[in-house]
Outer membrane receptor for ferrienterochelin and colicin (Dokdonella fugitiva), 654 residues
Amino acid sequence: MLQTLTRSAFAAALSVAACATVPALAEEKPDSLAEYEDLDEDQDGRRGRRRDTVDAWHGETVLVTAKGTAADDPDALATDVVRWDEAIAAPSDVQDLVTRVPGVGATGQNGLFETFSIRGSGANGILILLGGMPLSAQRRAGVPISFVEPALLGDIRVTRGPAVVHYGPGALGGAISIEPRWFDASFLQAGYATAGDEANVVAGFGSDRFSLAAARHQAGDSRSPDDVPLNTSYRRESATLQYRERFGAFDVDALLLPSRTENIGKSNSRYPTRDTTYPEDSHTVGRVRIRHDGGFEASAYAHDQYLGTWNRRPGSPDTFAAVSSVDAGMTVQQTFDAGAFSNDVGIEYLGRRDVTAYDASGSTLNRRYSLRNAKEDAWSLFATSDWRVSDALALEFGARRTWVEQEQRGASVDDADHAFTAGAAWTPADGHRITFNASTGYRFPTLEERYYSGVTAQGEIVGNPNLGSERSRGVDLGYAWHDDAWSLEAHAWRNVVDDLIQLTDLAPDVNGYGNVGEGTLHGAEVALGWAAPAPGLALRASAAVVRGHDETGRPLYGIPPVTAELEARYARGDWSVGARYSHRWKMDRPGFEEVERDAVDVVDADLRWRLRDGLDLQFYLRNAFDENYYATADELSTFAQERSIGVNLVWTLH
């Protein structure tokens, strides 16, 4: 009874405050929220420059920098920027962090391999870049980025809507660009959370020229609030090594990011009767980039990855599966100004080699290869142009053309497609900004979708070599307003996807891929921010509605429930307190292999205290009121974790 009253009072207090998601005011940041907003970290990790493009969700009418493979700054795309070290309650993984952005929803099953959708586009319909490297999919649910330790990351830029021109093939519904965190001083963090006895330690050091950091994160099996066992254990070691140097007019930087995760439990509703474990998930990402003061930029990158799967079920032999590949690519581009125009032209290549996948029954020695030494080559030409028509009006245009070739055991598929983008940003008066964007996008079927047939954690899957590419057409209308204390941003959007690739039932526990026609997605997002006259208080409320259906009217997979969130942080002196309240309305229109789920209120909170200069302590609560709810609508999803009480101790040598 007391818990119910407390929850109701807390929710009511937050609702009265306003409906908005402001980053936590980290103690080392400036005291003024306005001053804090004007500081940014560039892609090299340098802090302290005044940024000319600031996230409008946080109260500025100027533009957000959202870097894809193209080097320009898109004016009219809806973009939010989040950072793990500023988030309330220390999210345990990247997925938990990005799903706090309006319009982004959790998909798949619970656990470390949970994935997400952007405005209803999920799986391989969104593109993820890590350090500028496009990540390929190894799973039918899409690209999980759980192999990246959140504490090793800097800016995470979430772009909503078709963004193929700026990011590359695959971003027909949205894109996420992740930059590693730069450690320019000695850093040590140790943390513990009660759910699953989760523990982590992060250490880093560096200077203006190099940054080195390593992390170890592990967790055991946990339980839901109603004491259902959850298969959530794993152990992950990861690191980042970065280097940068100036040679005359050239800037050179390099990145190496290895990650090894073992014995990942797959939490699902059939556990422990049916158990799925990923014995190994290994990744090594590398990048070298050269930039010239004259606008020339060239980068080369590579990604080696391996994922193993082990399924156990009563009365049947154990089954195994593994997928591996080596991806490598490069981007070369030139930016230049011509009068009122700022232009960028470039070429991009991404190749996949040694794409191999097998499944086995009874023993890993009984292998059946459906993919063996397959390869893929994709070339893109892209160009963008920003036109400053007047002080109040800016226009942008862009195009991309991609050619792709896939080969597998003598079979060969060639495909090509193109995309366009056109946008406008108009500032009719101080404090007001109106944006419009119309874009097209595309994605090609992956080698795994076309050719892999075998076991997965969900059941059997059958590839379809006759799959065609998906194409999208999207529009976005945005409005932003701010004054000295308040800020508002709203977007209304629509995205139509042709030749949508969806899973369909072929037999009990057997699914296949098919182009099922047209899918229509539409919705709206709004965010309201308030920096109180009293120093240190900031509020942000947000709400998002996403709707989607195929041409027969059936709901699409991955549509998140209508969601509203409120975040508040108050900082004073050496301490700050923050809370995040999220309300998800009932989801009663499930898509394929989804089920209905009830409405839920979830609260996270934290308290940060500067013990002395360079030493900070954080206490936090996840799922503070121990709500028993499904995190996703997947038919095998299980309940979310029980209440978790955690602590982080951070030492930084300034």
Observations:
- The radius of gyration is 23 Å.
- The chain has one domain: 2-652.
- Residues 1-66 have pLDDT under 50 and may be disordered.
- The domain at 2-652 is CATH 2.40.170.20 (Maltoporin; Chain A).
